[in-house]
Specification:
73 residues, mainly alpha, 3 helices, 58% helix, 0% strand
């Protein structure tokens, strides 16, 4: 992951467990946040909120492509 990237926002928004495992290859800062923390963050950091939405949209596109591939196997 690049500086400033995040993961887990989908789980925070849905309340479902994460479907990903993250492995760090270097030192990094990890913060666990609640939905209320996320709401406050979004209110104060609109650019980062857009980045998170774009990340979620990419993830949904990959999931849809994977489902489509499985259906055609």
């Amino acid at each position: 992951m690049a500086d400033g990237e995040c993961f887990g926002e989908y789980s925070v928004l849905t309340g479902n467990p994460s479907i990903y495992t993250v492995v760090a290859f270097s030192d990094m800062l990890i913060m666990k946040i609640t939905k209320e923390d996320l709401i406050t963050f979004v209110e104060m950091n609109t650019k980062n909120a857009i980045d998170m939405m774009e990340n979620t949209a990419r993830m949904l596109n990959v999931m849809a492509m994977n489902i489509e591939m499985l259906l055609h196997e």
